[in-house]
Amino acid sequence: MGTFVIAQRLSGVYKYEFVSRKGKTIFTSNDFELRFECEEEIEKLKCSLERCVFMRFKSSSGKFFFRLILDEHEVAVSRRYTTQLLLQKGIDEIIKYADKAEFLDFSSAEDIFGTSE
């Protein structure tokens, strides 16, 4: 099952990622000024997966990626895939698991693993 992970960028804005069962990032959201906006966007996405559109692209370097569109707004951009089959597997994982996915909040955890003494 996939997981939504909320994190804070170095610039101070928040983002979330959908991470596969194997720990690979499938897509990364746009930036949010406040952390709770990430949570709201995740809930909105989970409730309206059937309305999502996956626009597929090929980069100039030959890699494949998609943009996740919800209600005519770009919500997220996927990682780069080497083949169209892997791209489709990423999309299938979102469709299958995103509505059941939990979310983890690493945005305020400055020292997750503690200090080694």
How would you explain this protein's 3D organization?
It comes from Flavobacterium cheniae. This is DUF1508 domain-containing protein. InterPro entries: YegP-like_sf. The protein has 117 residues and is an alpha+beta fold. The protein has one domain (3-105): PH-domain like (Roll), CATH 2.30.29. The chain is built from two helices and seven strands. It has helices at residues 35-47, 84-97; strands at 3-8, 14-19, 25-29, 53-58, 64-70, 73-78, 102-105. A hairpin with a 5-residue loop joins strand 2 (14-19) and strand 3 (25-29). The radius of gyration is 15 Å and the shape is globular. The chain starts with a strand and ends in a 12-residue tail after the last strand.
Could you give a quick summary of the protein structure above?
By secondary structure, the protein is of the alpha+beta class.
List keywords for this structure.
117 residues, alpha+beta, PH-domain like, 2 helices, 23% helix, 34% strand, globular
Major sheet size, sense and barrel closure = 7 strands, mixed
The number of domains is 1
CATH class label: Mainly Beta
The CATH topology name reads PH-domain like
Can you lay out the helices and strands and say which pair or pack?
Blueprint: E1 3-8, E2 14-19, E3 25-29, H1 35-47, E4 53-58, E5 64-70, E6 73-78, H2 84-97, E7 102-105
Parallel strand pairs: 1-7
Antiparallel strand pairs: 1-2, 2-3, 3-6, 4-5, 5-6
